[in-house]
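Handout, section B. The chain below has 350 residues.
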Amino acid sequence: MQYSEWISKTSRAFGMRSGHLRTVDVALKNYSNSKSVTDLVILKNALGDWQNSKDDWRASSRNLGGAVEKLASFVDEKLRLMNHGMVLQHAARAAQTRIARQESTIYHVSKEVEQVQRRTPPVTYKWWVRFDMIQRGTVVEVVVHIKPVIGNLALLDSVQKFWALHIERAWNIATIIERGARYDLQFRLNFTDSIADAYVVNVKNPPPDETAYVAQFPGVNPRDGRAMWARAGTPHMEDWAHVDSQAVIHEFGHMIGCPDEYWTISHKNFGHTYDSSIYNKEPFTSESIMNDTSSNGRIHQRHFRFVEQQYNAWRQPNPAARIEIVRDVSPETTLQMAMKSRRQAMGYDD
């Protein structure tokens, strides 16, 4: 049956004019696909015109007339919601404009720090902590500039995304509290080859033979063994393994002003007092990312003290801010921890 024939027969069956039925049919088809306020206004007007002239067949088409009235009310509601959404979008754009205008001058941090480690003989390590602090509305960004050096440029994009994912997920857990106001503290990696004082990081491979490396540690399950193998490719701040998602979190900690929490017998310029009970432990003996780069290593309040000090220096002459952790996470994701608990409950030696 042709569409025109269907319109003709159906309109006669309902005792209504074919033009009215065609309006209703088009309205029903267009309602679910309407994307803009303009579409809905046109539809609303068409329904209104049709409803105003339907008295001549109301009695014989009561059900259809009621359905169209309901459709008209749905259009009104959808139009109201879309208008409300437009108001919200406009407000959001206005707020973004205000934030952009209020954006503070970038505060550049560049400070040399030092730690002495308990070795034979003792070894002194010095490095520069460098990052930018930017406030955008209620967000304070700490931007660390990194210049990756890689042999295979085809892998560069995936390596950068991998590092940023794990590092930012681990460190973005805190808020700045300043005289009652709260600012979301966001750490961000900016990969660049144009900033002079960016950290130069060599993209390294882990040890060539994963099986041989893991065999040095009897009793380690395959999953942990692979993580150990990946971490072995990240020995310090200047070399990061492209497959490592844990030790890079530790090395990033150095870039924002955290000393090692193993074998460290003194430190300088970190903005807080040395405490041997924290810094002079054996490696992998405390649940701290600056001591233990496995999945047991966690980020603690003290790991934000250097950033807190620099923020207050920026906010002179009334420094009053403190940084607090608002969600406690470890390098191991919530999903990974849940899966691990599930495996253990099922009796697997994990």
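Note. The chain has two domains: 3-101, 107-345. Compare this with the example in section A.
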